[in-house]
Amino acid sequence: MATDALDIREAWSKIPSPGTAETEFERFTGKRMERILATVVAIGSATLGAQAFVAAVGSFSRGDVPQIVVLLVVFIPLAAMLVACILGRWVSIAAGSFAVSYVLALVAWPIVVPPGGAGDQPWIFFLVNVCVVAAMLAFPIRLQIAWAAGLPFIYGYVRLVQGSFSRDFWITTAFDVSFTLILGIVIVALGWMFRSVAAGVDDARGRAVASYASAAAAAAAEEERVAMSALMHDSVLAALIAAERAESERARELAVAMAREALTRLANTEAAVAQEGSDEPVGISQIVVELRRALSELGADAIVEERGGIGLIPGRVARALVLAARQAIGNAVAHAQGRGLHIIATGRGDEGIIVAISDTGAGFDIDTIGPDRLGISASIFARMAGVAGTADIVSGPQGTTVTLGWERS
User: Fold this and answer.
1) Level-2 CATH architecture, domain 282-407
2) Is the entire prediction scored with pTM above 0.85?
């Protein structure tokens, strides 16, 4: 049950919650939609841009510098926008640059380009809606609407100025303006709709993740509560009942053993893996690694020595030994400020191990420790007794030494 709770906690920790730094992961659908829009815009704009470029090259004479400048002002930002859309980077900057440069070129068009006939379609007309899609990629929705609704009328006014507002220009320009106006509004509407759908999907996903995280937390808390209740009922309560009913010496010995086991299991609930976990053999060197890790977590500085032969001991023994040593280290840090902290792990091959934790603090009187203080009685003595190990504490003015041992019977 404890392992299941840990699995839930680990899975929960890997789920990004809404509003955290995992924004890129949370907006997966929105980013994918932006990439699709940029790709579609690149394909359509490249087609219309090629058509406009061919018409532009054939429409002006050599040495016509103003028209060449207009052509460069329009097509250089357009080429940059196409490259950005293909690469998927700097799309907003490149598209915004083209949207602005195109409007400037369109405003300057009557001054730079000589007027043509009413039936002649200027090359800049092919890019009116390309400018609208550029605004759709670069600007917020209000500016998109402004570009879609205003740009066709600017184009129409430019054409009428070139045609001196003649009747023939009114007719052809009205068709061009109405066509580009309808198409531009449709483009903006489609872009807004697709983005809204993507944002809705991401929002629903965020709420689902938050709901699952809350449910996982509740499930882990409930499993922990059930495990603790079962522990209290099966071990602690049974030990209390046995102690209350103990009349003979044998019954009292059994009650003491049950109480020791109950205290050991209760103390082990603070560990990431309970005593009932895997009993796979653990090397003595691994115990030293865990002791160094405990020192690091507790912010303590100590000398750690590894002596004796290398061997393997049962996993449950290793866990109890490390947890008991961790409690001893914590006591040395809390009460002796970690002065002279020294840890020696002596291996006896596969036959056992002895771990000694010593400090040079002021020491304490073991007999004055109340029975309700579980830091030593449960976390050290009872824990080691639970795995058939030994624990001994010697304390005086010169310091304290906690010796933990286990032998293979």
Assistant:
1) 2-Layer Sandwich (3.30)
2) no
